[in-house]
Amino acid sequence: MAKGQSAQLDRKKLMADPVMMTTIVLLIVFLSLFILYPLAILLVDSVYSQGTGLTLQFFRESFSKYTFIRAITNTLKVGFLVGILSAAVGLLFAYVEVYVKVKTKFMAGLFKVVSMLPVVSPPFVLSLSMIMLFGKAGIITRHLLGIYDNNVYGFWGITIVQTMTFFPVCYMMFRGLLKNIDPSMEEAARDMGASRFKVFTSVTLPLLLPGIGNAFLVTFIESIADFANPMIIGGSYDTLATTIYLQITGAYDKNGACAMAVVLLAITMLMFAVQKYYLERKTAATLTGKASRARMLIEDKSVTVPLTVFCSLVALFVILMYVCVPFGALFKTWGRDFTLTTKWFEQVFTRYKGLKAFQDSFMLSLIAAPITALLSMIISYLVVKRKFKAKGFIEFVSMLAMAVPGTVLGIGYIRGFAGGVFHSGFLQGIYGTGVILVIVFVVRSLPTGTRSGISALRQIDKSIEESAYDMGAGSLKVFTSVTLPLIKDSFLSGLVTAFVRSITAISAIILLVTPSYLLITVQINEFAEKGSYGIACAFATILIAITYGSVLLMNLIIKFFGTSRKIKEAE
After folding, report:
1. Angle 434-457/488-503 helices, nearest 10 degrees?
2. 448: Cβ–Cβ under 8 A, 6 or more apart, which residues?
3. Would you tell me the crossing angle of helices 18-31 and 354-385 to the nearest 10 degrees?
4. 1-44+356-516 and 56-338: same fold?
């Protein structure tokens, strides 16, 4: 009864707060319009024909095509293998960081840097490097090993590149899980005579199983939704994302593309539901708290040497892949003439409108980043700190974009805003403009910022905000003067993450960009497809410099102006 009265009181307070009510209504409208509506139009287009009404004809036609069945099979094969490999590599990196005593600080720092590199890089950089290192004109295959007919395209090319791209996601998940395991449980097993391997398989691994399943599914979703890497290094090995793209841009079959997109969406949604509503809760229930005392790091050479060697090899491979990109932009002709030159960088700005591409990408991402960060914090605040009927709807829809592949969202926006319900007015007019690109950037980055904000807000005691309300402050005042300063680090992190994700995005915007706007990622994709690797690498090098510069700037800002620094000074 007390809980029901409390909830009723919270709702009365909410109804009496016009700012909060307006915010909730605007959020519901935004999420419905730019996430649910495009997906609904996509679904309608896949089962509705103007001539016959409701029909399954487009699904029947799609499934009757050998290319589509092959694309589904290829996508699932790559997704499963990438999920397994990424989880395994991520677990090893996390295990070495948390459990193993690495001899030098340099090696420990190297592993951390390498595991974070792909997170803030354009999604197709490793594909470019793979072709330049192991392709028919590759430095390693042709010039070092003398192999002239090596085919890097296809299943193994996509699998290796995606594993190197996505294993850092698993690493970050496992690092937190391993740190939360109480070392006394493992030490008790060791005291009873169990070997290191036995302790790992009988104690550590069972505690990690839900987390391993979680990491696998997250990576599986990322892999099957990936467009950029299969497009560049896939060759004739079709995946669902590239098949859908070619169906709408090559065959001009919008209904068929919508049917294919619904199939891909159904797979990702199913995996997302299992990951979010089953495995995430199970993981939280399995690991219940922080370690009770410091962990004794493993120093046995039988463990440290093989794990350190493996991580070192992976680290060197990833670094080699990234070093390859700037050198690709500095060599005169990759694979033939290795004379150093700056002509590719010069042509980026003189011949290929590079300045406009960087200006457009930078400005649109700069507009999208603060909108995304603020929206993420507002949604997080409402989900964690407020009680109202639409809370579950806001949380679910804001996270839904995480499960929607970029290609699917792009087709939904084309069908929704280039036609659809809105045949006139502002919403019809945004198609083909920078506004729709900014909206896509916001929608794609919203789940990441929201998850970060929810985690930060759950650490703040409710009494801090309640005291401000008791002193007469309104919801807007409490949010801006109490809540936001306490989650400043999370806000700044979300700001830069949104900027980096926006400026490196390609899968959704490649279908929406028009000649009015030149975007860096689209330019890189175009030149890579043509085999113009010098220009592609020049664009990619500058883009990498921008993204890493943004991350370094964020770290400096948090270091000197962040919440954690102020708390330390106060102490």
Report:
1. 150
2. 376, 402, 494, 497, 498, 501
3. 130
4. yes
The architecture (CATH level 2) of 1-44+356-516 comes to: Orthogonal Bundle (1.10)
Contacts 24+ apart (CB under 8 A), 385-389: 385/457, 385/462, 385/465, 385/483, 386/10, 386/14, 386/20, 387/7, 387/10, 387/11, 387/14, 388/10, 388/11, 388/14, 388/24
SS3 at position 357: helix
Predicted structure pTM score: 0.84
State how far the Cα of 449 lies from the Cα of 55, in Å rounded to an integer: 39
Fold exhibited by the domain 56-338: MetI-like fold (1.10.3720)
Q: How many whole angstroms separate alpha carbon 229 and alpha carbon 124?
A: 5
| pLDDT band at 18; cut points 50, 70, 90 | confident
Model confidence over 74-119: pLDDT tens digits? 999 999 999 999 999 999 988 888 888 877 777 777 777 777 777 6
Residues 6+ apart with CB under 8 A from 456: 380, 486, 487, 489, 490
Match 């921008």 to its residue by tokens. Answer: 546
Q: What is the dihedral of CA 418, 423, 424, 430, to 10 degrees?
A: -20
Evaluate the CA torsion angle 317, 405, 256, 427 in order and state its sign.
negative
Domain boundaries of the chain, sorted by first residue: 1-44+356-516, 56-338
User: Tokens 């005169």 correspond to what residue?
Assistant: 332
Amino acid making up residue 319: I
Q: Please give the Cα distance from 217 to 268 (Å, whole number).
A: 9
Task: Round to whole Å and give the CA distance between 414 and 419.
Answer: 7
